[in-house]
Each structure stands twice: as C-alpha cells, then as structure tokens.
Amino acid sequence: MSAHQPRSSASSSRKVLVALLGEYSRALLIVGVVVLLVAFAVLGVLWVLDTFNAAVYSVDGKNIADATEEAKGLREIYSPVRAGAWVVLILAAVFAALGAVGLYLNRDNRSKGQDPEQGDLGVEDILD
C-alpha cells in the first residue's frame, strides 16, 4: 500500500505543477521571446562592433589574429558582454520553451473554463 502512495503524490504534484505552469505560461512565453529578441540584437551589435574594430585595426596592415597584446585586447574587449548575452539567450529560450509547454499542457483546461455562448470580450465590454 505504501508503494501506491508515492505514485498518487507524484500524480498530484504533477497536476499542481501543470496548473501552476499553465497560470504563468503566457507570461513566460512572452517574456522569453522578447528577451530572446533583445539578446539576438545585442549579439548582432557586438558582431558589428567586432567587425568594425578588426577592419579599423587592419588598415595599417596589422592583423586582428596576431599574438600582440593590442590585438588580444581588441579581440577580448567584448568577451564578457558576449558571454552574458549567450547566457541570457539560453535562459530566455528555456523560459519560452516552458511557456510553450505550459500552454500546450493546459490547452484543454482553457477551453473547459470558457462559456461558448459568451464568446470573447470586445472593446465595448472592457470599457463598460
């Protein structure tokens, strides 16, 4: 009998997790996608700045891939920001995935709670 109880508690904890995830899934998805777009923009700006620095540095015939301290400093100038952008990008992807999974798992629960005769709220309903 004790072997049956953990399965029941695991099932109830799963239901609680799915319900909690369903409650915040839309917000997680929106925040995840917005932060993903911002992280991609930051990485794009960093790529443009790195390209510009390499082009300006190579005007005098130098190479950005040289082993000099100056070239090393130029290569590593944006490294902390780039690493942070990658970390934020990965976390945002996880949040967006959790939001999508939450919406998927709760797709039946949303339709059960809606009254089919009532329909969606319009602007007039909200303003009244």
Q: Any low-confidence stretches, pLDDT <50, length ≥5? A: none
Measured distance between first and last alpha carbons: 56 Å
The level of helicity is over 70%
**Global geometry:** elongated
Per DSSP E runs of 2 or more residues, the count of β-strands stands at: 0
Q: How does the major sheet shape up?
A: none
Strand share of the residues? under 5%
Query: Helices and strands: which structural class?
Result: mainly alpha
Q: Report the average pLDDT across residues.
A: 80
Q: What string gives the helices and strands in order?
A: HHHHH
Radius of gyration: 25 Å
Outline the structure in words.
The protein is an all-alpha fold and 128 residues long. 78% of the residues lie in helices and 0% in strands. It contains 5 helices and no strands. Helix 1 (4-57) packs antiparallel against helix 3 (79-105). The termini are far apart.
From the structure above, extract its key features.
mainly alpha; elongated; 128 residues
What's the short version?
By secondary structure, this protein is mostly helical. Helix content is 78%, strand content 0%.
Task: Walk me through the topology.
Layout lengths: L3 H54 L11 H7 L3 H27 L1 H7 L9 H5 L1
